[in-house]
């Protein structure tokens, strides 16, 4: 690799992308919204995921969770925002793939995703007990009205459990589809600061739960300093248009400028296919400013550009945000490709400071020093890289090469 520096850089760049992008995006999972689960609750989709079961004192029952962590979670030591996902048996697979796809391209941050598996979604997702559906009594709605208890479970038990057992940032997103969309709106009203952002997909608001539309209107009028993001969407579904349009009208009329929102209508999708586009567009909307410059890492001219960008993000999202190791590494290699070795060294050195346990960070710094001709610094960096990862054959080769040149 060291025989041809440009070739070495290109190989390292391509190798990373081959590994990270190989999974690709899976096909859309059809959404089913009956009270019967379309898949057994313990049938966790494969990949970097685990299932946990916790006992809820609030709900007086066991609750199953599907938890996804980013691929580098164990090695990185970093903290992550959390996306809480309702109805995960219907959407967990494609949402975790979207997280990979978008975060690999730096359009969104890497996320921990927590799927809250259903026991009785009609009970949990409805704040009001009501047997009415389309003007008629529906006996299948007998258990409705448990939304307040379910919210208390999330607030008092689930979130503390996740924050205790996983490395989380104080930034949470709640996403719900159909009845889950109703519950997501209810959460914003009942606990405005619990989630910083919401993705509301085709909300099913009917019967006695229609009162939430008036409650949401009053809520917006009374919260002139409301902050955060809300992405609302609807498929081509006339039965849901009145409620979704009413929410959008109130947002347009009363939402303060500090509360960002969007309303997307997907006329080529229905209630069961709208989830994928809604989730993609919702995440892109919430993190619209995450991408650095029009050319991504190619826009970076120095570490100062990176520092300024992430300082703005920290202010915007309300918690300290640092660039990831991979992002810094790619910025450094982009500058090496352009011949800006000193600027690349500055970025690689900062990456080492932020990630002192990373063999790869030291290896990249060693490569930049080698290209500049600073052999003592290159040797020191490669030795540290090899110490952290004795399997680093490139590091061992470069140490031998530098020693032979002395």
TrEMBL record:
Belongs to the esterase D family. Keywords: Hydrolase, Repeat, Signal, TPR repeat. GO terms for molecular function: hydrolase activity, acting on ester bonds. It comes from Taibaiella chishuiensis. InterPro entries: AB_hydrolase_fold, Esterase-like, Siderophore_Hydrolase_D, TPR-like_helical_dom_sf, TPR_2, TPR_rpt. It comes from the Bacteria. This is Uncharacterized protein. Residues 1-40 form the signal peptide. PANTHER family: SIDEROPHORE TRIACETYLFUSARININE C ESTERASE (PTHR40841), SIDEROPHORE-DEGRADING ESTERASE (EUROFUNG) (PTHR40841:SF2). It holds the Pfam family Esterase. TPR repeats lie at residues 359-392.
